[in-house]
Design brief:
Distance between the termini: 59 Å
Largest sheet: none
Structural class: mainly alpha
Radius of gyration: 22 Å
Oligomer: single chain
Length: about 80
């Protein structure tokens, strides 16, 4: 059984959400539930975004101290 939740939402957002829900064949409640489930999902259960996976490998093999020295020289610190 679903629990009730009371929200305060700008009236213009409510109108837009109802239109969007109707156009997509879903209810506003379903849209909100799906969104809340997505943002509260356990981060470790999800794969990292592809951009993050690419960035993780971009510094492999780089000496961190050398990189810090290069940044200090480049930005004058």
């Amino acid at each position: 059984m679903a629990a009730k939740l009371t929200l305060s939402v700008d009236p213009n957002v409510v109108v837009a959400a109802k239109r969007y829900a109707a156009a997509s064949g879903r209810s506003v409640s379903e849209l909100v539930e799906t969104y809340l489930a997505a943002i509260t999902a356990v981060a470790t259960a999800q794969a990292p975004p592809p951009q993050l996976a690419r960035w993780r490998g971009s510094m492999s093999g780089v000496d961190i101290e050398d990189h810090k020295a290069w940044l200090a020289e480049k930005y004058g610190k």
